[in-house]
Amino acid sequence: MELKIGAIIEEPGNSLKNRKAGWRSFRPKWDKEKCTQCMMCWQFCPENAIHQVNNKRIETDFDFCKGCGICENVCKFKAIKMVKEEQ
Amino acid sequence: MKKIEECSKAIAEAVKLCNVKVIPIYPITPQTHIPEEISKFVNDGEFNSELIYTESEHSMLSAAIGASASGVRTFTATSSQGLAYTFENLFIASGLRLPIVMAVANRTLSAPINIWGDHQDSISVRDCGWLQFYAESSQEAFDTTIQAYKIAEQINLPVMVCVDGFNLSHVYEPVDILEQKQVNSFLPEFKPKFKLDTNKPITIGPVAYPNTFMQFKKQQQDAMLDSIKIIKNVNIEFKNKFKRSYGDGLIETYNLKGKKKAIIAMGSICGTIRELSNKLKNFGLIKIRCFRPFPKQELINVCKNLNELIVIDKNISIGNGGALAIEVKNALFDKKINVRSYIAGLGGKDITINDLEKALKNKEGWML
User: Fold this and answer.
1) Smallest Cβ distance to B212: which of A3, A6, A12?
2) If you count Cβ atoms within 10 Å of the first and of the last residue's Cβ in chain A, which end, N or C, has fewer?
3) What is the H or E stretch that residue B64 is in?
4) Ranges in chain B annotated CATH 3.40.50.920
5) What is B2-242's CATH topology?
6) What ipTM did this prediction achieve?
7) pLDDT (tens digit per residue) in B52-67
């Protein structure tokens, strides 16, 4: 990677290439059975790591999930549970 | 045109001639006359520039960083506690590689509270990645301010132009103020290497992880060392155009030819040393004009035939000694030169010819 002076980044949107999920210590475990597809987690995820296919959420994108736990917090149906990364 | 001008006003004139576009300011003694004169120019309609009156020095340099990042020529000025207050921003300006020029009217730091001049403020921030020039006269302060933009914009590093508080900042003496046409022929329009622009977005100031941080610091160090050549070239170009030069741009000598002994110092005290040198005729002067980057090789070259060097420091790195003496000893560590260090002029104490004569005779110590 070429390092520009002053650490400037000239190319917008390069976070799609630079995956920065390495610091995650908890990961959201998603229970498909309990999920009602209300899309609260999809709305609140600050990293856009939860995507929809045909109006239904799919498994969290672990290349971008930082493990913040906001999805667990907003889930009204206890369908998301944060578990230790090594489990 | 030669005018009798206060040094602070000469700096303000230089800023005007450099067509600086944004000037965030906050007053502090003894820097106050610089923003005062600039404000006068702007409010009298003589100078088309945007002044930002900030609420502190921290905001002042933050505003300068923002302005410079948007790609315009930026100036600011401060002293002492103000420089200390904006300490963290100094590293940000240099780390972001912004060619800001800042005048520092040197004053000591509290406590005990004292508003008079020594080099403690700018010396205390010598490691922040800014170039540092110490001017001896109003003329040099004027010329250096103009040269500073030319240097800063080539290497993308910020520059401090330091003038001794009161001893120089408030001194009236003849200054040759250049014409706008002359300055335009020397200093081209500022073309930033990068800038914030909504049509072509970039990110400035992202996080750098341990795997890249050191490389950015090395880029800064390399740029700083490369600037030695640029400073010399700018000094030569200035000399060719305006018939004035300051040694090789980094280091200047006076009456040194054939001498075994020299006094080495920075800033306005060099004037007194020149006078004593003319009187005694047994020693020369080495003036460090540029403290950062430190002209190591240039110093070794001018010290070739010397066996005794007296360093006058208007600062103290408490626990070791004068900052200039530390640098000089470092540069000359394997040379057979007896380097003696003197701490003088702290908190505005006058350094007289008599003091200097004693320093030439005695071992080392303090001019109390």
Assistant:
1) A3
2) C
3) helix B57-69
4) 251-366
5) Rossmann fold (3.40.50)
6) 0.82
7) 999 999 999 999 999 9
